[in-house]
Structure formats: structure tokens, C-alpha cells
């Protein structure tokens, strides 16, 4: 399974949204309405999923699915 698919699956389950709502370049906050609490929960879930630790600097880059994938790839060397 690709990294993006794992991220999408984690976020869809956590945020209770349909997979088609989570497009690669859609803003999580602006388009889907993810709030700060949900974002924290997403970060924790993604850290567990990928076995990595994300810094506050990394998290500030989380805007779209593509952004999250880029950060995770950088942390996991995949």
C-alpha cells in the first residue's frame, strides 16, 4: 500500500469523511473543515501508523494530503 493511501485511510477513518472528499490538493482546514483538535488527533494517528515522530515545524506544513505525504516521506525515507 502506498504512503498516500495509508494517510488517506487514516484520515478518512479519523475524520469520518468519504474518501472522495479527501482529494490530493484540497485544504484540510478550509475545504473539509478540520479543526485544531482533529488535526492533533490526525498527527497522533499518523505518528502511530508510520512509527515516526512529527515536530511542530512538520505539522505546520500540513495543509493538503500532498503536503502530509511529503512530510511523512521525509521522515520515513520512503
Mind explaining what this structure looks like?
With 78 residues, the chain is mostly helical. It has one domain (3-76): Orthogonal Bundle (Non-ribosomal Peptide Synthetase Peptidyl Carrier Protein, Chain A), CATH 1.10.1200. Helix content is 63%, strand content 0%. The protein contains five helices and no strands. It has helices at residues 3-15, 28-32, 36-50, 56-59, 65-76. The longest helix has 15 residues, at 36-50. It is globular. The two termini are 12 Å apart. The model has no long low-confidence stretch (mean pLDDT 89).
CATH domain topology: Non-ribosomal Peptide Synthetase Peptidyl Carrier Protein, Chain A
Beta-strand content bin: under 5%
Question: How many domains is the backbone divided into?
Answer: 1
H/E series: HHHHH
Q: CATH superfamily, called what?
A: ACP-like
Query: How many angstroms does the end-to-end distance come to?
Result: 12 Å
The helix tally amounts to: 5
Global geometry: globular
Percent helix, as a range, is: 55-70%
Low-confidence stretches: none
Radius of gyration, whole Å: 11 Å
| E-strand count | 0
| CATH top-level class | Mainly Alpha
| Secondary structure category | mainly alpha
Overall pLDDT: 89
Largest sheet, if any? none
The CATH architecture is Orthogonal Bundle
